Amino acid sequence: MSDATALLREPWQRLERQRQAGKFGIWIFLASETLFFGALLLTYAVCRIEHPDAFAAAGRETNIWFGTINTAILLTSSLTMAVASQAAAQKGRVRQLVLACLGATAALGVAFMIVKGFEYKEDIEKHLVPGTGFALSQPSAQLFYGLYWLVTGVHAIHLTIGIALVVRLVLLGAARRIRLRGSPELEVTALYWHLVDVVWIFLYPLIYLPGRAS
């Protein structure tokens, strides 16, 4: 059985058409996700313009160390995913390298969620959840933290899905149930993972940097 035949899935008869369909589908999905996150970021921008002082005060309450650590973690995970994708496109015995890089990517994703869990715990203890007993005196500061919980929560859900997809590839690849070299599934998963990383790159300065220059 050739590599192309092993990678084919129904109803496709040619690997190239299967790749094109997979890439087209994931790009459509990524475009819809970009519109979704774009709407959230636009809402944030409008609220910040309307309430600059309250957003600056609220931004100073975020834990920049947690945010910076998680940014470094996701950037590293993007690197390991890129290495896995590049290795899978090469000829030769690269299966172990691809599996190692995918495993590292999933582990870094889990590390991000653990750090985010500690950050959420601190936010709750500091009464930075909008509602009764909110810690900050400015009413508009609750807008900031309402958006904070919304966008970081949605991002965490997307990252959790990404971790599950990567772990699936690792398990199937380790059991030799799929071929990792030239795998369209790996290509699609990598694109999704990079979307999650890019979204965080936009969220980091919006959430953690307001008010810190003054």
From TrEMBL:
Its main location: membrane. Gene3D superfamilies: Cytochrome c oxidase, subunit III, four-helix bundle (1.20.120.80). Signal peptide: none annotated. The keyword Mitochondrion does not apply. GO terms for biological process: aerobic electron transport chain. The chain crosses the membrane at residues 24-44, 64-85, 97-115, 147-171, 191-209. One of its GO terms (molecular function) is cytochrome-c oxidase activity. It is found in: Cell membrane; Membrane. Belongs to the cytochrome c oxidase subunit 3 family. PANTHER family: CYTOCHROME C OXIDASE SUBUNIT III, NITRIC OXIDE REDUCTASE SUBUNIT E. This is Cytochrome c oxidase subunit 3 family protein. It comes from Bradyrhizobium vignae.
